[in-house]
Here is the input.
Amino acid sequence: MTEGKISENIEEYLEVLYRNGSNGEQVSTTQISKELDIAPGSVTQMLKKLENLGYITYTPYKGAVLTDEGMKIAQKITRKHRILEKFLIDVLKIKEENVHEQACEMEHTLSDEAERALCTMLNNPDVCPEDNIIPACSFDFDNCNQCYSQKDFDQIINREFNLLSISELNSNVEGTISFIRGNDELLDDISALGIKIGDTLKFDSENNPKANQYLVTINDDELDIPVEMANNIFIRI
Here is the structure.
């Protein structure tokens, strides 16, 4: 479970790239500069550094795209930020206008073990207070019940690939269902639709979203998946 320490500055850049390009979209230097309030020249220097580290692919005058390794780090820090926002508002009753800044300060020091405990306490939240999807955890489980049953955190291993929920998809993609998040009731509801780990899922962006549902094809069967389920069904693309 131990990983090398990554600077807060790098995590902030990767978080911005994920927020604007989780589906592999190119994020412009101008966009990054605006969100981080950093001069474009300084942003360009950092993007070159991130490319040398293997976290992004950078194209001058166009922008940057996360690599698989960069995506892994970006998802982890984004997940911690959004879980912390949920905790600060729902449990500590912090004023909403103060939550984002406090979560930004806390996310860099929150351990994976503490993140897991917060997730369990909050009953596996799927969205933050601003209704942004909380990424899947990085732990190598098929569902949350498997996580609950593993009491020794030191025995948990990390997943070797990245995931996106159905609700995060915005292009025509095909992937394997690899993680389903939620309590027993939600897991049962998803299972009742015949959806299981290992199924092949196809997503057609031209047909989505539709009336709070997503039309997907799973093992050649078309299904309308409610948003509440789609938030919690993750595929490996």
About this structure: Residues 41 and 134 are 32 Å apart (CA to CA). The first helix runs from residue 8 to 21.
